[in-house]
Amino acid sequence: MDDLGSLLDGFAGVVTPLNLLFALLGVTVGTAVGVLPGIGPAMTVALLLPLTYGLEPTQAFIMFAGILYGGMYGGSTTSILLNTPGESSSVVTAIEGNKMAKAGRAAQALATAAIGSFVAGTIGTLLLVLVTPLMVTFAVSLGAPDYLAIMLLGFIAVSAVLGASRIRGFAALLLGLTIGLVGIDRVTGQQRLTLDLAQLADGIDVIVVAVGIFAVGETLWVAAHLRHTIGQVIPVGRPWLGREDWRRSWRPWLRGTGLGFPFGVMPAGGAEIPTYLSYTLEKRLSRHPEEFGRGAIEGVAGPEAANNASAAGTLVPLLALGLPTNATAAVMIAALTSYGIQPGPLLLERESSLVWTLIASLFIGNLMLLVLNLPLAPLWAKLLRVPRPYLYAGILFFASMGAYAVNAQPFDLLLLLVLGLIGFGMRRFGLPILPLIVGVILGPIAERQGRMALQLSGGDPSGLLGGALSYVIYGTIAVILLWPVLRRLSATAVRTRHREHADR
Fold this sequence. Notes:
The protein is mostly helical and about 500 residues long. It is built from 19 helices and 2 strands.
């Protein structure tokens, strides 16, 4: 009942005219950037971080939450109309959505994506309300060794599970941990990796890192591969669903929600895996399997629901543990620290009003998205015609202004360029961005927890092992790291058994 009362207080805080305006601004901007290929919610939140310093934290996070949900939906518009996903989590939507559009059913594809996003977002936010306080209660009982184990699991998960190559994932993580070490050691007072530059003594601001890696790196990458031809956008009327479309969509919406939310909560979850699982499940359960590959509406409804439910799930570890499971959540944690707010299990206790107002804004923002996207889908389609040079020139301008606004130091502009070149290099060699950002944000926190654990044990390495939870986590890490070897040994054993059976 206390949680329900806190949620009602959150609704009271969000329904002020100014907060509703920020929620509307967030979902509008989020949808717009989700539509544009290559510009995702993480880059948008990173760009807007420096511009929100004059806002109250509650207002800024209401807007960021709207961007998160709006970006998830906007990526489906590009996938359906242009066969170019605006977000990696919208790749599966393009498989059937673009086929539907080419068959003259773009309106129905956009409608099932919008309504599925609303259904999944609403159910996912309800689950967020139920799960987050329980996780916080559990997290408060943990000690420094347990937190260290959780953060190591986060490092290993985002590096070894996400992306095409473990080596590239760990290389990106190492780069992020190195950037996080720059500055004065708070325990010994010695400078680390500052190159005797006074401007680096306080470390590199996470906002400058996020803007440089995401915005400037993406801009340089696009400039290096710029094509002046604009993709053919399929025209669309006002989205609507017929009775048969409703009948074929509502079950995939619910199944997609059930798949997406748990994956969002997991450290190595994200939205990509549940969208693929949802597509496979719907193809197997469909009464019209012959339509898959030619424009099956279930192949749009399920993955889009999984996508948005996963977005709600990512907020559970963010609010309860201070652990980001995707790039947007990582940048939102950077936003918390920029306001002097410490993420972690005490966040709900110390900043209760902020957390519950943020959660309440998700319900309202989700409704705004539905009202906004159903009638305005033709307008979003026109955004796809914006020339890329103008678009990315504007991004570069706002990135530079935002980085300079952090400390008002010209040195930060040079730092921004260096980080942008690093981001460009990472894209060139296929290094994932998320491990770097997670390393920058969580690296210093993990170091502090590790030192605290060793101090409590008098320097005994066994102090790094806490209760039963840490043993479970380290066992999970071992399985993740050894899984390729175990899978190869298992496959070899199966082949040997088959060969022996054939010889007989």
